[in-house]
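User: Here's a chain of 624 residues. Predict its fold as tokens.
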Amino acid sequence: MAGTLVHLWPYIWPSDRTDLKMRVLWSIVLLLVAKLATLAVPFTFKWATDALGGKGSAPADASNWKLWLLASPLLLTAGYGGLRVLMAVLTQWRDGIFARVAMHAVRKLATITFIHMHELSLRFHLERKTGGLTRVLERGRNGIETIVRLVILQLIPTIVEVSLLMGVLLWQFDWRYVLATLAMVVVFMSFTYFATTWRLGIRRKMNDSDTDANTKAIDSLLNYETVKYFGAEEREAMRYDRSMERYEQASVKTYTSLTLLNAGQAVIFTLGLTATMLMCAVGVRNGRNTVGDFVMINAMMIQLYQPLNFMGMLYNGIKQSVVDIEKLFEVLAHEAEVKDMPGARSLVVTSGLVRFDDVRFAYEPARPILKGLSFEVPAGKTVAIVGPSGAGKSTISRLLFRLYDVSSGSISIDGQDIRDVTQSSLRAAIGMVPQDTVLFNDTIRYNIRYGRWNAGDAEVERAAQLAQIDGLIRMAPKGYETQVGERGLKLSGGEKQRVAIARTVLKAPPILVLDEATSALDSHTEHEIQEALDRVSRNRTSLVIAHRLSTIVAADEIIVLEGGRIAERGTHGELLAKGGLYASMWNRQREAEAARERLALVDDENEAPSRLPPLDDAIASAAE
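Assistant: Prediction complete.
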């Protein structure tokens, strides 16, 4: 816990914000004045009680107005009320002044965490679940707010009040009262510590169950269509309910343990209160104390109960908040796998020549993916990468973007090793059209403008025209302000691809990467998208990772990967003439397409679709 508070201190006392520091200092001043007013309340209560009992009646010499004021029950009662009002006003004033400090700390640390999450490598995000990460950020943000507010607004005030109270007890009564009160405070805090520590394990289980349930809910909702395709609503509900059942059980234990904690604290405090009041009652009988003293000790102890109870809640709240943000600090402590080198300079693209030189890479040391890959993408030319699944095609684009760093070898652009330049300048020079386009849940205009944020509306619309989607957009009632939905699910696959092409056009990068950009589309849509891609890639250095070989027949060079190595390379015609792996892949794809066309023809001629042979059998027959 101490380490967490140390980490938080720079955000509570920011070195670059004098105004926030002054707010902290002013809050402390108001705190001290409020606590002095708090301790004065029992004194006015005592004096008013003694005055009402006859020990403070107005003096015979009414001209002695000071004594009269001290002895007047009505004025003392009014003073009691006034002090309570002053105490409340000062406390709320302090809270209001400190609110800006607390929320600034929350915002600052939450933003730093958010930025850090984007700096972490793709490997980190592939190993984590989005729902779990968002829950960690949410609970961590709430935990930060709780800790900051509790430490300044509860912990320090409680320590000040308890210290002042001990001094008053020693001054107004004697050491026995101090000893009894200290004993009660020690037992109270010891019980609170051990009970809260016991509850932490229960709290962790509840948080883990909550994270698990939230992750499953987000995962299921993101895959809404898949759930519908397989009629899995009931299965998903049962899966979510099992997580919520664990959360329910952990939550019940959490609340049950809280009742035990509160009951124990109440018993301990009541014993201490009773002990001090018994001593004062004996003093009243023996004439050492007045009834006002009896009332005063009761009022002081009752006032002590509130900060003590807050102390219990404070420890409990801080510990629980530490549990809530410990995973957030784990994320902050996680080192970014890909970093800019010290003194890294900006990439300067002169022609756009991309070179892979003996590149080796493995996601896991025991499973190498690329094994000494060397090739060039000449400036303004198009080089296509093909090969069977698992050959390492998409890994190439990830390495070029520096989502990972190569294990050995180098990747350079115009002779500059991409590890020696800043990541921002590298990625600004490369445009990507991925196979699976994911859009932000915003408008079409927003998603296209994401390619270049300072672009005007006219530039956005021109990019859409080049991507052949402007006409479709204008047919929609809201045009460019049409919402695309979560991950762009309101758009078709072809429409999403066109939006991705449009934002890449708007970015206008000198180097273009097309990572199987048309493999998930039908033949007609693929043809239209391919025309847009050809227009975009013209006069740009283009690296095309292809699944459908028909899309790369015009490439300047085709590289065939197999097992992480280059198996063949050449133009489309040269590779077909060799009769090797590429020719085999080409023939298989042509046969499959012919089979699909034959099936479509049979489907048109048959009125009874049930007479058609299964698709797999038809393709197998065509292949034979």
